[in-house]
Every structure is written in C-alpha cells, then in structure tokens.
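User: Before I run my own analysis I want an independent prediction to cross-check against. Here's the chain; please return only the structure tokens and, at the end, one sentence I can use as a sanity check.
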Amino acid sequence: MSRQQPDLMIDGVRLPLAAAGVVSQSYEDFGGFGVLRLGLGAAVHQQAWRRVRTTLSASGWVPAGLDALDWSQTHVLGCVAPRSIQAAGRVITLPAARRTDAAPYGFAVDAVGLLRPVAVTVAGNVATLGADAGAVSYQVLYYPLLTVRAPQGPRVEYDAAGAAASCEIVFEEV
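Assistant: Structure tokens:
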C-alpha cells in the first residue's frame, strides 16, 4: 500500500520542488474559547468559535515565487501535513474541506497501540476502513484544504553563500 506525499498548493498553484524541497507544517487551534473557574475551582469550558492556524516553512534553492499573491485576500491552501481522526468503528466522517488530489489513508490500531495499514474507501465525506481482526480502533488521515488569510504575508530569507531560499507563512482559517 503506497501513498504519495502531496505538493504544497496555494490557490491551486503547486510550489515547485526547487522552491519547496523541504516543507514543514504545524497546526494549532485559536479562537474565542477557554476554561473558566467557578468559585470552588470547578472548570467550565466556554467556546464561541474555533478555527485553525497553520504555519508553513519551506526551503529550497530558489525563492518560493509568492510575490504576486495579494496577502489582503483569502487564499485556498492545499496542506501537506495530514490531520487524523481516530474512532472505535471503521466508518469515519471526514471534513468536507479536504484535498481531493491526495487520497485519505488509514490504519487499524491494535490493543498495544501498533498501527497496521488498511484500505480506505471514500463515498462523499464518509471513509470506510478495511476490517482488521486485531483492531481495537481505526484511524484515518486526510490532507486539509483550508480557506485562509495571511495578512502579514511570508517572511522570506535567502542565504547567498549557501544558495538556499526559505520562507515562513502563518495562515489563519477564515
């Protein structure tokens, strides 16, 4: 069972391998949420909204070619770092906002936490993972397709001595 790592995409344009030879991506939630404490210390979770912030770092031997993007506008980001959902059953609902050019893939998780690859079929937003006799749960991984803003734009660096270009961009889901 082989799978191919998708290329980083912004607004449907692939970053060339020379520009994005090494890419890393992180995710974090941000928003109007928090834990408040009552008079005797009991925790109460309150949430008005929640979104995803993702930071992309890329380096290669030519700049990424992002200078023409209007950073005051929204962009569609084809992520390179998978997100995952684990469930007790083999049928798992996926987010609608995911890349269609990079198929979800999955694992059966056994009682000691070992992962075994299993086949995944997707119909609409529902992934069905192949049965595994020793599984206690199943995990499906997918690549998000996020509508984002990056009002600061990229932070770009170029090392002339090492002939290496790099950039870092912080995107926030709209």
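Sanity check: The longest strand covers residues 43-60.
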